[in-house]
Specification:
By secondary structure, the chain is mainly α. Among the domains are: 53 residues, no CATH class; 48 residues, no CATH class; 71 residues, no CATH class. It is 35% helix and 0% strand. The chain has 11 helices and no strands. Bound molecules: heme C (8 copies). One heme C (HEC) binds next to helix 4, helix 6 and helix 7.
Length: 249
């Protein structure tokens, strides 16, 4: 026997002792520290059921909210947020539903709550409305433009003047007042939704202005004419004439 023990390699001996200690510890802990009612009904303590039942409910549920806030519930029911429950945004409010005066739930008036669902994430389903919150109308709270209970996006303005107010005002008082923006800037409709992605075209050559101002062209007599070959031929026109206020003097 002694020989047999000696013939076992040193590291196997150490690991066997360690194993025996672990198994012994497991048996001792299992017998003394695991609650007695564990395993009676499954892989949990039977008494846990009573403890959970005794806990206070924190969430009231949308049906309860709707009893008093029927106006909000009705509005939301036909909106994009019909499947987003009240307490997702307002926090647990069962106490409030029991006794409205005891405490008033808060409303998310910042820019942090909505992006939990709407921040751009590649893994969201295709077509789910997403934004990049740092660049989507920054600094203003979401609720200043979106009604959380009926969040249809506001209509983006169509007129160039809505976003280019200064250029529009300047041009309105200039000789080009009646030359439309689109005459000089071919603009895709998407420009108003994603201005930086769909950039309008700008005139690129003297000949563009020559379409109306060249003395070789017969058009409206009231449009002042110049000779394209003699009138400062070395420069493009807008080095001297601001196209939105092209006054010559
Ligand atoms: C028994 C009726 C009742 C129920 C049920 C009820 N509320 Fe209210 N709630 C009120 C009353 C009354 C007020 C106004 C009290 C106040 O302004 O302090 C109010 C105020 C609020 C406000 C704050 C309005 C504000 O001006 O800031 C929110 C948010 C709100 N309730 C959400 C909920 C949610 C979410 C639920 C469901 C869990 C709910 N309520 C259930 C009666 C109720
Ligand atoms: C997507 C988030 C969101 C959901 C879902 C939501 N709310 Fe709101 N709620 C808000 C925000 C944001 C405000 C603050 C609006 C403001 O101050 O202009 C608000 C305001 C309120 C108010 C104050 C009065 C008012 O009409 O502006 C009440 C009451 C209210 N919510 C109840 C509810 C109830 C009841 C539900 C469920 C039927 C619900 N909300 C669902 C975000 C939400
Ligand atoms: C729990 C997730 C969740 C939260 C929080 C949430 N939303 Fe939504 N939102 C949705 C869902 C779901 C839709 C519907 C998407 C669909 O119809 O495909 C939606 C739709 C929208 C739309 C409509 C976009 C479109 O398709 O035209 C806007 C705008 C919007 N939410 C703004 C907000 C704002 C503002 C807040 C914060 C007050 C907010 N959401 C909070 C889940 C959420
Ligand atoms: C200054 C006003 C303004 C503010 C503030 C604003 N939005 Fe918008 N939002 C818009 C307009 C306008 C549109 C529709 C045009 C567009 O797509 O840009 C829109 C569109 C959306 C859409 C739909 C995008 C899609 O692809 O269908 C979502 C979602 C949205 N906003 C969420 C938010 C959230 C979340 C916040 C706060 C972090 C917020 N918005 C703040 C004006 C605003
Ligand atoms: C919703 C707002 C909005 C509307 C509406 C709009 N624009 Fe713009 N536009 C912008 C923004 C923002 C930029 C700046 C893009 C940048 O600096 O990268 C811009 C840039 C431009 C530029 C300069 C491109 C460049 O190369 O520098 C032209 C030209 C222009 N817009 C013409 C128009 C015309 C013409 C219309 C009307 C048909 C129009 N825009 C309507 C927001 C708008
Ligand atoms: C007669 C032709 C003409 C008309 C009309 C015109 N533009 Fe321009 N616009 C130009 C030219 C040319 C440039 C390039 C100027 C440069 O590169 O210095 C330009 C440049 C711009 C730019 C770039 C920023 C700037 O100030 O240089 C914007 C934005 C712009 N136009 C918007 C508008 C809008 C909005 C309208 C209508 C309200 C309009 N334009 C009408 C010819 C025109
Ligand atoms: C679609 C035709 C059209 C185009 C293109 C056009 N203009 Fe004009 N331009 C006019 C008209 C119309 C007037 C004003 C006539 C009036 O005052 O009754 C005018 C007036 C002017 C004036 C006269 C100012 C004065 O003090 O009398 C200048 C300078 C001018 N344009 C420069 C330009 C430049 C530079 C471009 C190119 C970027 C250009 N225009 C493109 C139609 C055009
Ligand atoms: C180097 C600067 C410069 C350039 C480049 C330039 N102009 Fe002028 N333009 C002027 C000056 C200065 C006047 C006023 C004095 C004059 O009539 O010569 C003027 C006058 C005009 C007038 C008014 C003529 C009248 O009879 O009232 C028109 C129209 C005009 N320019 C169009 C253009 C067009 C189109 C281009 C480009 C093809 C252009 N200009 C390029 C400086 C310039």
């Amino acid at each position: 026997m002694k020989n047999y023990w000696n013939s076992i390699p040193e590291q196997v001996k150490r690991i066997s002792i360690l194993l025996i200690v672990i198994v012994a510890a497991f048996i001792v802990i299992r017998a003394n520290l695991v609650p007695k009612d564990f395993g009676e009904l499954g892989h949990y303590r039977t008494s846990a059921i009573d403890e959970i039942i005794a806990q206070n409910l924190k969430y009231g549920g949308e049906i309860l909210c709707s009893e008093c806030h029927d106006d909000v519930a009705e509005k939301k029911a036909s909106s994009f947020h019909k499947n987003v429950s009240c307490e997702v945004c307002h926090g647990p409010a069962a106490d409030h539903a029991d006794d409205p005066d005891s405490f008033t739930p808060t409303a998310p008036k910042d820019r942090d709550t909505c992006p939990i669902c709407h921040e751009y994430l590649q893994s969201r389903p295709t077509g789910f409305p997403q934004i990049i919150s740092v660049s989507h109308n920054p600094f203003k709270p979401c609720k200043s433009c979106h009604n959380a209970h009926d969040p249809t996006p506001p209509e983006t303005p169509k007129e160039c003047s809505a976003c280019h107010k200064e250029i529009f005002s300047v041009k309105s008082l200039s000789h080009h007042a009646f030359v439309e923006c689109k005459t000089c800037h071919k603009t895709k409709d998407n420009h108003r939704l994603s201005p930086r992605e769909f950039i309008p075209e700008k005139p690129t050559s003297r000949n563009f202005c020559g379409q109306c101002h060249s003395d070789e062209i017969v058009n409206n007599d009231e449009i002042p004419k110049i000779s394209m070959t003699e009138h400062e031929p070395k420069y493009v026109c807008w080095q001297c004439h601001y196209p939105h206020l092209p006054e010559a003097k």
